[in-house]
Amino acid sequence: MKISSLLSDGCVLQRDSENKIWGQTNPLSDVTVKLIYNTEIIEEKACKATEKGNFSIAFSPIKKGGPYSIEISDSIETVVINDVLFGDVFLLMGQSNMELPVARTLDLNREYAKKINNTNIRHFEVPKEWDFKEKNDDIYKGVWKKATQENVYQFSALGFYFAEYVNADYDVPVGLLQTGCGGIQIEALIEEERLLNVGKILKSNAIARGEKGCTCGKNQSCKFCYEEVIARDKSDEFIENQTKADAKEQNEFNERLSNSDPGLKADYINKTTLFTPDETPRYINVPERWEAPNDSEFLHDVRGSVWCLKNFDVPPELVGKPARLYLGTIIDADETYINGVKVGETFYRYPPRRYEVKEGITREHNTLVVRVKVSQRYGGFVPEMPYYLDIEGNKIPLDGKYEVKIGANFTAEDGVVNNLPDSMFFLYRPCGMYNKMIYPLRNMSVKAFLFYQGESNSKMALDYDPLMREMVKGVRELFGEKLPLAFVQLPFFGQEDDDRGTSIWDDFRAVQAGLSNIPDSVMVDAYDLGFRYELHPQTKRELARRLFDNFKYVLYSN
To answer: 484 — phi, psi (to 5°)?
Structure first.
């Protein structure tokens, strides 16, 4: 017998609703399903599997509570699902700000998070996979996890904090089906036929506006290319070749970076200065992005590695104690050392650098060395972020003057910048997530869905309204035509690089405001929860409160 991982130990099923129990067994087998509380059989039903071996039985609505167990038997075996709760189940959809885990909100919620232990809130991370050829029937990977100290730091922060409000106010177990995935466009969440149909309308409108044609990037698609992209992505050969080519480019870049960086050969990691006595030191201010006009302008076109060094002192009474390093956000990647000991590294630009410094590493006189790896845009240390070492609540500043020395530089002598090309992220591509991560959830009963997406579509605001409406129709086709929806209007976000900025997001927010007339939906204003240089605000707990306060009247008005 084969049972979906959605129906596994610790699952949460929707209260006051019919719940399907489904699976696969031998063709035409007799199947019996029992719902048991303690030792009492609450309900027992039987059915016969189809000629393909599929079976499905619906339990009558059950009020909140548990734990229950479910026994599923055929002529050969019995499968038991333990610790089943009935409560409210929410589908989480969107991109990185929905996916962002509790662990990435600890600047604001560290002490609060240490106290979390609520086994009535449970989280199922849908495996991040795609299928461009066909809709998948089911999911056989993933497990339900309880909100304990062992697990909660990897839960969707927005989802978890929202669940806390629901659980506290209505004393009901909460299940979260997490499908959020960083970087995706909304097209990834729309069924193929729907997307092709709306694409024809978008293309016609664009031509009427005078748009010339495709504006796709490697990880973006547009209405001019939906058919081409969808057809191409159905080729296993294309995916295999593209994946190999991307890996080759990345490996060659990393190998070249390692082989041509004099700082590695000269062991800058263990130096207290980057310069010999006969060299003239060069400095930058941290934080600062390496673009004109500022003191770091000479680093603007560097693609490769840049070494940054700062000496700092620790008060004698704090020497050697465990610490936490706050190093803002760095573009693009970094390796970070204190006194020659690696304390952390991050491989892309967006995560805040928060590194644990173990006992015994710090001294009275210390050296911080950061090897910044710049591969796709100007580098730098993002302003308006924290830069300090925290030892038992004592903050030692780490902003200000740093020695700096270019390591490897792949910019040509004529000034041509050699960016590492983007790898292709197939999860971002049209329809793949819908087929593999959304459609297979359709047998679950859910209370509502929460949606936080749009950053990756912000440059195509004119196309977004019909795309989101089609996405909502598609989800409701699977889960119920009046399934309540709560979605987040993008927060304030300022100019971080050349192709994003307040004006673009203002236009996009206006489009989202127009979407607030979708029936059975609420839009939540998050403008004041944004930050100029932070694409992933940590204010998810406050945002969850707003979601709950606005949405509870839709969810619990009866």
So the answer is: -65, 145
Q: Which residues contact 389 (CB under 8 A, 6 or more apart)?
A: 312, 314, 323, 324, 325, 326, 357, 362, 395, 396, 398
Cα torsion 541, 547, 548, 553 to 10°: value is 170
Looking at the DSSP bridge assignments, the partners of residue 286 are 400
Residue type, 51: E
What b/e string do you get for 501-510 counting C-beta neighbours within 10 Å, with b at 16 or more? eeebbeebbe
Q: What is the pLDDT of residues 35-53, one digit of tens each?
A: 999 999 999 999 999 999 9
- For residues 360 and 347, give the distance between their C-alpha atoms in angstroms, rounded to a whole number: 26
Total Cβ atoms within 10 A of residue 146: 18
Position 26, amino acid: N
Whole-angstrom Cα distance, residue 331 to residue 166? 38
Phi, psi of 246 (to 5 degrees): -65, -45
Q: Using one digit for the tens of pLDDT, what is the confidence trace for 341-361?
A: 999 999 998 899 999 999 999
Place of tokens 């620790």: 314
8 A C-beta contact, residue 97 and residue 120: no
Beta strands in 339-453 (DSSP E): 341-346, 354-357, 365-374, 380-381, 387-391, 394-397, 400-409, 448-452
Query: At 485, which amino acid appears?
Result: L
Q: CA–CA separation, 249 vs 251, rounded Å?
A: 6
CA distance 110 to 128: 27
Tokens representing 16 are 């006051």
The torsion angles phi and psi of 33, rounded to 5 degrees, stand at -125, 130
